[in-house]
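Re-run with default settings, no changes from the original entry. Doing this only to confirm the output is reproducible before filing.
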Amino acid sequence: MSLVTDEIRASASEIYHGHDICDEKTKVLLKEVGLPNGLLPLKDIEEVGYVEKTGFVWLIQKKKIQHKFEKIGREAMYATEVTAVAEKNKIKKLTGVKTKEMMMWVSLSEIFVDDPPTGKITFKNPTGLFRTFPVSAFEVEEKVGKGSGVGVGVSGGKEIALEQI
């Protein structure tokens, strides 16, 4: 069952459709809240939404994916729907993200970086157990130049066509 209801969509400050624009907006949001831009390496993103009033964010992709963060040798699994509440230096109430620990998949509930910055990022599960890694392991180089992606976004209640630059 989806956590993203029609009521939540109606209250959204921003909604985007199409992989290229959704991928870009995901990286922008992560950067705005002070988290590394490679934290959510999703594929074939269909929709990204954000409710500014509450910080609620959702990302919907075509199918769940597994990703290995090579710099730390850790695997993560992302469901077709990932939801969270974004705050400064933190994502909390996270759903749809699991990490592999000793041959078991464990759900994550919170991700945060220290303030003031120490270069570390912490991943917490619902039981309170956590792991800390270097922030640099989750940063990706930003692409410079003109893209060819086109998407659709909603901002201020109006649906607009967007071209990735």
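The first strand starts at residue 14 and ends at 17. Residues 19-32 form the longest helix (14 residues).
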